Amino acid sequence: MSTPTFPKRDPSGPEFWDLRYEACFAPWDARKVPARLREFVASGGRARTVLVPGCGSARDVRYFAQSGWTVVGIDFSAEALAAAAGELGEYADRVRRGDFFAPIAEAPFEVVYERAFLCALPRRMWEAWSKRVAELVAPGGLLAGFFYFDAGDRGPPFALNSQAELAALLEGAFERLEDVPVDDSIPVFEGKERWQVWRRRG
Ligand SMILES: C[S@@+](CC[C@H](N)C(=O)[O-])C[C@H]1O[C@@H](n2cnc3c(N)ncnc32)[C@H](O)[C@@H]1O
Fold first, then answer.
1. Does residue 24 lie in a domain region?
2. Is residue 87 one of the residues assigned to a domain?
């Protein structure tokens, strides 16, 4: 299938994403629950509160809910949430329209789950992302998920150019607990993403 063309929009706003979900063009959508996420949930010992920012079609939200976790998914794209509604069925109330940078009543969370959200944000927004994620994870809580590394500064997806770049964003408030490869990436992220878990300092 050829890549559709879209009118120019800034990915920092919902229209960029609305256009793509409306056209059913979502090459970032894994359409499955990643193995590293399954391992993380299985190894946690108990259900937790978790935020899924930029949840898109929300398969991961459904998985957390099915696993008994208290999950909140937010996305500022109405079209993304329309896609999510089709996935979530009885869990439809776990997602809502909202901006990651606006207040979230349930915060802070024991876990914030990262998948294809940081790389959706233009790099000029990454400092604000790191500040916000430190507010949203409770002390002792975890930022866990997939981080995309590559050369270049164009996107989306906007790649981290090095581990040092991610460390510079997070190390003020978090310490890294885990960093492992990912074996079941979808083509756009293949060989370029790592599963990492960061703990919020208390
Ligand atoms: C690349 S998609 C990833 C979606 C989903 N996490 C996945 O893995 O399929 C990025 C998503 O983040 C959403 N998004 C981007 N900026 C946002 C913001 N500031 N607040 C809430 N959602 C945002 C977009 O609407 C889009 O659905």
1. no
2. yes
Tell me the best of 76, 112, 184 to mutate to test the pocket of ligand 1, counting ligand atoms within 8 Å of each CB and taking the most.
76
Is 54's C-beta closer than 6 angstroms to any atom of ligand 1? yes
User: CA 185 from chain center: how many Å?
Assistant: 14
**170-193 confidence digits (pLDDT tens):** 999 999 999 999 999 999 999 999
Q: Is residue 12 part of a domain?
A: no
Question: Which CATH number characterizes residue 164's domain?
Answer: 3.40.50.150
Best residue for ligand 1 mutational test, from 24, 75, 121, 125 (most atoms within 8 Å of Cβ): 75
| Tokens read off for 114 | 């990262």
- For 116-164, how does the pLDDT look when each residue is reduced to its tens digit (9 = 90+)? 999 999 999 999 999 999 999 999 999 999 999 999 999 999 999 999 9
- Is any atom of ligand 1 closer than 6 Å to the C-beta of 28? yes
Residue 8 lies in a domain: no
- Domain count of the fold of the chain: 1
SS3 assignment, position 177: strand
Question: 37: how many CB neighbours lie within 10 A of its CB?
Answer: 22
Domain that holds residue 115: 32-200
Q: Is the CB of 17 under 6 A from ligand 1?
A: yes
SS (H, E, C) 39-105: HHHHHCCCCCEEEEECCCCCHHHHHHHHCCCEEEEEECCHHHHHHHHHHHHHHHHHEEECCCCCCCC
